[in-house]
Write a structure and sequence with these properties.
There is one protein chain. The protein folds into four domains: about 10-125, Lipocalin (Beta Barrel); about 140-490, Beta-lactamase, CATH 3.40.710.10; about 520-605, Lipocalin; about 610-695, Beta Barrel (Lipocalin). The protein has 16 helices and 40 strands. Helix 2 packs parallel to helix 7 (about 285-300), helix 2 packs across helix 8 (about 305-315) and helix 6 packs across helix 7 (about 285-300). The relative contact order is 0.08. The strands form seven sheets. It has a nine-stranded antiparallel sheet, with no helix packed on it. Strands 12-11-10-24-23-22-21-20-19 form a nine-stranded antiparallel sheet, with helices on both faces.
Length: about 700
């Protein structure tokens, strides 16, 4: 076994190379061109390629070793004499050299390094085939940039691997529009949900170590795991967790709009209502992937980030990969993210994804992501070394849950299924394994056809663009010589018509008449709480109400009665709310449609801070008399008001809202204090059988 080479300075640590050309040739043309070969090492052949060409000073040779990411390494002491070829590799310690004999189209020889010799056979590439492949690559480059410009995507990092060879790793467009800085193959982009496959690979490595059984309920590994659905809590396996069949819809604002930590999000899962029964429906779910990250942490004793770095990034040699946009910004080659607003491309702020990291926080370059693709195409092997069992890789790539919706409406694309961190479906007879990713300002795609040894990674710096899919299908058609279609026209052709229809719908909505609000604005003001989502705050600015949910805030437009529409400024996040009252007509809660796939979520109004303020509570104490002479004595014990009525037990008053308190032991009973300035003048006991006023003595 020989260690992998990550840069030329390390070449001396391994036995790497081979594949050269030799031979006796009648003409220069017999030697010129590309030669493919492999050093026959004991463990596995090491593929390489050399290029020979004449210059004014004689012969020049360059060597590529794809598995070692070595390109254009110069051959020294290059000699072609008669039917013999020889050269040395001075960049490689150990006196690396090659000597071989030529016969038509083949060079057979010996590669020597550090006193050891290995067979090396070179085959001359067919000139016509090489030219045809280059023509395809040139066509792909032209298509990529043309589509990128048409889709108004500022920048793109693209990598293609085919039958073990990297055909392309290039940048297109700009990574920094404002300063006109170009994208390169090493530019770092956020890959969003393409990160999910790294999380499932981490679990697969734990399974291979015997620390995880995919089909064992995760409750055995996470005793504190708890969902709203008790059956799902007890039966959820790692496969369920990562194939989007938990029964939970997205509930994304819980993590996207807040600063809750990973552990806080995990503890709040129990309060999120499902929208389907367990295992009955595929529903994309980022929080379950966050939970898969916590499972990784508990089983490994490391943070998810530490584990993925040690077990995946380091072995694959992915120096550009990181888990934080803050870390990405510290590099000298990263892309900003962009979006389109009012037909203008504008830079978007980075979104910190630490808490939800296992679902989508990874950043990487096209160059490094190609190493990830190479692993996926290698049946568990990477550069000739075992990385993961082939059965584990097959499990991740295999369908686990059928999806209801198609990804792109076209007859050539079958109904998709979801594996473990991968979508899989049939494209015109080809099995596709892929996963995209979208997060503020970035859209990514890892796309593979394993049976053809074909894979690509497309990383863009524009929010929510489908360009990556257009390029993937188009490049597949070109490279595999298939009768394709104009994917750009199919995906982007109807956009203008759709936008016109949306504008017409918005205009019609604006014309609808509204009915007046049922309460003055001050009655709506307050803090409303959900045990999972936390707080929604309603405040007032001038003549408008304002709704705030952690990072999102927007002025509320009145719709109908107690329904208001709020749009978070700059984010276009809808924070629509509907207020509801108790039996006494007081606002007691609001409902908000934070997730379109579940019914409105109820947030109960929290008592005002003054209802726990001892100074305010003291003003409410005293004796109050009902019309029939019955006295109600209100006293203060610590921070709690007590109510005593002759012949009845002492009641504890719990803060409710406004100036009202609930009777802790009597459901449906409240006491509301009537204030005159800062003094209480009376109380009203609201009971199921009526309201009863008692004046203060």
């Amino acid at each position: 076994m020989y260690p992998r080479i990550q840069n030329r300075s390390l070449l001396g640590l391994l036995l790497l190379f081979a594949s050269l050309v030799a031979g006796f040739a009648q003409t220069t043309e017999d030697w010129q061109g590309k030669w493919d070969g492999a050093i026959e090492l004991p463990s596995t052949p090491l593929a390489l390629q050399i290029k020979l060409q004449t210059t004014a000073d004689g012969w020049e040779g360059l060597m590529d070793i794809p598995a070692q990411r070595i390109n254009d390494m110069a051959l020294a002491d290059l000699k072609i004499e008669g039917d013999q070829l020889s050269f040395t590799l001075p960049e490689v310690p150990g006196t690396a050299s090659f000597t071989g004999n030529w016969s038509p189209g083949t060079v057979t020889g010996t590669f020597t390094q550090m006193g050891q010799s290995f067979p090396l056979v070179l085959q001359q590439q067919d000139a016509a085939a090489a030219a045809a492949l280059q023509a395809k690559i040139d066509r792909i480059k032209s298509l990529v940039d043309s589509c990128r410009i048409g889709a108004e995507v500022p920048g793109l990092g693209l990598g293609i691997i085919y039958k073990g060879e990297v055909l392309m790793a290039e940048g297109f467009g700009l990574r920094n529009v404002e300063d006109d800085v170009p994208v390169t193959a090493d530019t770092r982009f956020a890959i969003g949900s393409s990160s999910k496959a790294f999380t499932t690979m981490g679990l697969a490595l734990l399974a291979e170590e015997g620390k995880l059984d995919w089909k064992t309920p995760i409750k055995e590994y996470l005793p504190d795991f708890k969902l709203h659905d008790n059956f799902a809590t007890e039966e959820m396996t790692a496969i369920d967790l990562t194939s989007h069949r938990s029964g939970l819809p997205r509930h994304d604002l819980l993590w996207y709009g807040t600063d809750f930590s990973r552990e806080e999000l995990y503890q709040r899962l129990q309060y999120l209502e499902p929208s389907a029964s367990f295992r009955s429906k595929w529903q994309y779910q980022n929080l379950m992937y966050m939970t898969a990250g916590i499972l990784t942490e508990r089983l490994s004793g490391q943070t998810w980030e530490e584990y993925i770095q040690e077990k995946i990034f380091n072995p694959l040699g992915m120096p550009s990969a990181s888990f934080s946009v803050t870390e990405m910004e510290q590099s000298d080659n990263f892309s900003y993210g962009y979006g389109e607003k009012e037909e203008e491309i504008t830079r978007l702020p980075f979104h910190q994804l630490d808490a939800i990291g296992p679902a989508g926080s990874i950043n990487a370059s096209a160059t490094d992501m190609l190493k990830w693709v190479e692993l996926q195409l290698g049946d568990g092997q990477y550069q000739g070394q075992h990385f993961i069992g082939g059965s584990q890789l097959k499990l991740m790539h295999s369908p686990q849950m059928i999806m209801e919706n198609t990804l792109i409406a076209d007859p050539s694309i079958s109904h998709p299924s979801y594996g473990l961190g991968w979508f899989t479906y049939d494209y015109d007879g080809l099995t596709v394994v892929e996963h995209g990713g979208n997060i503020d300002g970035f859209s990514a795609l890892v796309f593979m056809i394993p049976d053809e040894g074909f894979g690509l990674v497309a990383l863009t710096n524009k929010n929510g663009t489908p360009l990556n899919y257009v390029l993937s299908y188009s490049i597949t058609d070109i490279l595999l010589e298939r009768d394709g279609q104009d994917w750009y026209e199919l995906v982007f052709g109807d956009n203008e018509e759709d936008e016109d229809n949306e504008e017409e719908e918005e205009e019609e909505e604006e014309k609808e008449e509204t009915s007046p609000a049922l309460h003055p604005f001050e009655d709506y003001i307050g803090t409303y709480n959900h045990p999972g989502y936390g707080d929604i705050i309603i405040s007032q600015e001038g003549d408008q109400l304002v709704v705030t949910y952690y990072h999102f805030s927007g002025k509320m437009e009145h719709q109908q009665y107690d329904t208001f529409k709020g749009i978070s400024e700059g984010d276009d996040i809808a924070l629509d709310v509907r207020f509801v009252t108790d039996r006494n007509g007081q606002i007691e809660a609001l409902y908000s449609l934070l997730d379109a796939s579940v019914p409105e979520i109820r947030f109960d109004r929290l008592p005002g801070e003054k209802l726990s303020d001892p100074d305010f509570l003291e003003t409410l104490t005293g004796t109050y008399s009902l019309e029939n002479g019955t006295e109600i004595k209100i006293s203060l014990e610590g921070t709690k008001l007590k109510a005593d009525i002759i012949g009845q037990p002492t009641y504890t008053l719990e803060p409710h809202q406004g100036n009202s308190f609930k009777l802790s032991s009597l459901q449906g009973f409240t006491i509301e204090f009537i204030m005159d300035g800062e003094k209480a003048t009376a109380l009203v006991s609201h009971q199921p059988n009526g309201d009863f006023r008692a004046n203060k003595e």
